[in-house]
């Protein structure tokens, strides 16, 4: 859902960051690095591979490959799995093959008053099927192509719908004073083949967006409705702000306050963001999980 930003009178604000567009360049051939000793993780009640992978900064595919896991729904409480830790940052990172067509777009670089550099953007799913475990990499280079800095991030949605998009944000806490070019890569992104614990029957209504009285913050409100026949939990909304050139200027994920989101229920939400450039429009997406979804014990059958 992408309404146009409401034009309301507001005080003049001083920019807190500057937008720095630079030309993209082709990616160099990645150089493999030595893999360090892996970590052993013990599965707990409620665990799934997606949050585990995000916690350790690896992909679900890497965990499955390291442990021979063919069906991530059949994990066992108390099971020990290997977390294949990636090597320390080097000149380049070897990307995981991406079996779905994904494109990085809407990229913008914004310097903050404290010297940080934010890289904001989004990933569009160009394929005809949903994708999950979408992770991106952005690297900064000088005029000769030498690497100056590098960052990675997962998108802010667990599943990117077919034809859909999801925002990401990468913070460079100690960036170079300047850079001449950058490179972008989709490090991972696999087809979403089963629903698993995700709850699909959520929709957003009664949206509104506009600047706050301070002229700097941007407020988005609305209502989330459970249109399904089951209860949901961990429901969250993801708000993305864009400028007039369709660059991402802010994004934020906020959880709905209700711990249990009953079938047919509604809940209001309010998201306040600090955009890094003028806002022309916004987008709101929602995601959630089935209530009571658990990793089955060895003697049980997955409840799907």
Please tell me about this protein's structure:
- The chain has 304 residues and is mainly beta.
- It folds into three domains: 34-87, Membrane-bound Lytic Murein Transglycosylase D, Chain A (Roll); 89-193, Immunoglobulin-like; 202-290, Immunoglobulins (Immunoglobulin-like, Sandwich), CATH 2.60.40.10.
- 5% of the residues lie in helices and 42% in strands.
- The chain has two helices and 17 strands.
- The chain has a four-stranded antiparallel sheet with strand order 1-4-5-9, with no helix packed on it. Strands 6, 7, 8 and 10 form a four-stranded antiparallel sheet that branches.
- The radius of gyration is 20 Å and the shape is globular.
- Mean pLDDT is 80; it is low at 6-35, 87-94 and 294-304.
Please specify the SSE layout and strand pairing.
Layout: E1 18-19, E2 39-42, H1 49-56, H2 60-67, E3 80-83, E4 102-111, E5 117-125, E6 131-141, E7 147-154, E8 159-160, E9 165-172, E10 181-191, E11 202-211, E12 218-226, E13 232-242, E14 248-255, E15 260-261, E16 266-273, E17 281-290
Antiparallel strand pairs: 1-4, 2-3, 4-5, 5-9, 6-7, 6-8, 6-10, 11-12, 12-16, 13-14, 13-15, 13-17
> In terms of per-residue confidence, which ranges show pLDDT below 50 for 5 or more consecutive residues?
6-35, 87-94, 294-304
**Order of strands in the sheet with most strands:** 1-4-5-9
Fourth-tier CATH superfamily name of the largest domain:
Immunoglobulins
Query: How many helices does DSSP assign?
Result: 2
SSE-based structural type: mainly beta
Q: What is the overall shape? A: globular
